[in-house]
Request: fold
Amino acid sequence: MRHYLDFEKPIAELQRKLDDFKAHPEAASLGISWEDEIKVLENKILEAQRQLYSNLTSWQRVQLARHPNRPYSLDYLRTTFQEFEELHGDRLYSDDHAMVGGFARLGTERVMVIGTQKGRDTKENIFRNFGSAHPEGYRKALRLMKLAERFRLPVITLIDTAGAYPGVGAEERHIAEAIAVNLREMMTFEVPIIACVIGEGGSGGALGIGVADRVLILENAYYSVISPEGCAAILWKDRAAAPKAAEALKITAANLKAAGLVDEIIPEPFGGAHLDLDAISRTLRDSLLRNVSELKSLTGSERLASRYAKFRAFGHFTEPKSTS
Reply:
């Protein structure tokens, strides 16, 4: 059953009426037919969807990025990729279930895939720590990237996390250091690296596997230094100001592309990726294959130089000239 978000309620009401008409047995003996009413409602639904999804606000896109039915990393590993073989543990502390990764095949390409993974229900969310990795998750990711470098395999990362876990245990095991080491080391790998934000791209938790030759983002995903709620709590002292914060942060795919912070926006099925897993999986596969092919045409030193220049170009600013 489709889950409707708050801003989709007008469509949900029309769909409910349509379902009622379709479920009502046609009284042929009485000459009653719902065919005309069904056509009218279907047209109303299409028009309502066109108006709504063509003019989504930043906050509505954040809500779509967090949709409970949105495809997660393991969903894409079953559809976009083939022959996924998961690898476990960081060889230092434990296996973090919020970070998954291993060998896989993408079309004809052998790759290493790493992604953050949320849960669908309470039990799985506890098991996956709501998609927020501990230090051992980032150290596991780094171990797999080093393995990919050794076997000359492209690295693909799938980002969907509200952020790295901020708890006491994570601090005791040096979460900031683990992320910082990943940032440094990902700048040194000669193999192609592609990062794709498939849902939430939250703060350093996302950036810890986000240093790449190409940064892709799904149409309704977002990438931000802080969540809209966190920003609202700091600036407006009220988390209810999250929609205002989402607009001010410029965190949507279109904003990020305009600022040069992402390289490509991957279009989603109308209404969101959760409505057609097969379609978004094919679109993602095509984009990843094209980018892997383009990156493999470069030498390792060329990729390193381009990657360095790419991230050094972020954050331009200007200072006013002195009037004195």
About this structure: The longest helix spans residues 277-296. The mean pLDDT is 92. Strands lie at 82-86, 99-106, 109-116, 155-161, 193-202, 214-218, 222-224, 264-266.
